[in-house]
Amino acid sequence: MHVMLQSTVPDHCSTFALSDSNEKAWQQKCNHHHDDRCDRCELLNETFCAIELCIGEVNSSTIRERLLHRLQFHAKTIRDRKAHQLRVVHQDHARTTLLKELDTETVFIYIDWAMKWLPMRYREAQRDFFAKRGLSWHVSYVIRKSNSDLSSQSPVFGQSSSSQRSITSVQTSAFKSDLQLLSSQSGLHPTPFYEHKTFIHSFDQCKQNGKIVLGIVRDLFLRLKRELPGVKYAHLRADNAGCYHGSEILLSTAILHKETGIWIKSIDFCDPQGGKGPCDRMAAVTKCQIRSYINSKNDVTNAAEFCNGAASTKGLEIHSSVVDLSYNDKIELAGISQFNNIEYTEGGIRVWRSWKVGEGKTFKWSELPTVKSINQLKSLYSPNTKSQWIAETSKKGTILLSSLLESRKRVF
Predict the structure, then answer these.
(1) Are both 214 and 67 inside the same structural domain?
(2) Does residue 291 fall inside a structural domain?
(3) Are 233 and 196 in contact (CB under 8 A)?
(4) Global pTM value
(5) pLDDT beneath 50: ranges in the chain
(6) Which of 157, 186, 290, 349 has the fewest CB atoms within 10 Å, measured from its CB?
């Protein structure tokens, strides 16, 4: 299924398929006709028709009705799955577009709760295995765009810091000239490039609701501002969990900017069950490190021990945290469950049901309730507050530039 923003095949045109027939602000007309057909899509419909004809030949009316009901149920399930895949691909355009437009003043942040960690000891009795209370931990995966020189970033080339220090200034200048030549010949652009860093907040006990998430986002923004004073804006991306897709987060932009100095430009939600993201991948890596820590005769039964177990993960800053829930004010916004893409400006917000389909529905700040206070998060313990950012490039570019570095070192 080749889903595109604009296609002459109606089943493949996401703009046409996701236009809301009941809301003009979420409608968009295509500048082409939908008069083409997809062989595979037509084959699916033909298969359903053929099965229905076979069922019609069954003599028993009871069995025939039962089989027709099953066919209708499974056909609807398959079509729903097809529609889900279209929405997933369309919503992913928000991510790719924002990453391409990322600058040095803006960061892109994935946020997600990981599956609770069950306390584990190196050696425990069978009676200790039952009735465990899981530890909650929240993952924030931050991507930024840096204008640093690739030749000084050892993670890109897989070199250790000692091997980098062994390169002289003459080698460095020669390498830079070759780097520019390789970039012009291959079409690679080594600078600027992306860097990422993961922040984890672990809790002994907490509710995974919007107020806790808002405290985590506030703490994350403050840490980013201290480490990167030039950061002014942020894009957030999350799944459709209620703690993210609620009024506490979507209407907190003004107070977050006032307290942290970072303005949220947009919040995007992926389609439910839209695939694994970087938060899930980092959670898997972190759990592997913790299991290795346990195998080294250590226990992980609380948030502080959880931090010690995960401290060896590269590019990870982890904190044992607690949130003081002193503010319990509730605010509500009608129709918020339909807003999957939110863009924030000084005058108000613009929302879409599907990314950039239609002009979007606008709300002025004077028409909206706003969050007036945020419950502060306190970091009780952190073993690695000085973790480094991990550099990223394309696989092809990494291989070519790494081989260039190796050849340059052999020459000298």
Answers:
(1) no
(2) yes
(3) no
(4) 0.81
(5) 149-167, 189-191, 394-400, 411-412
(6) 186
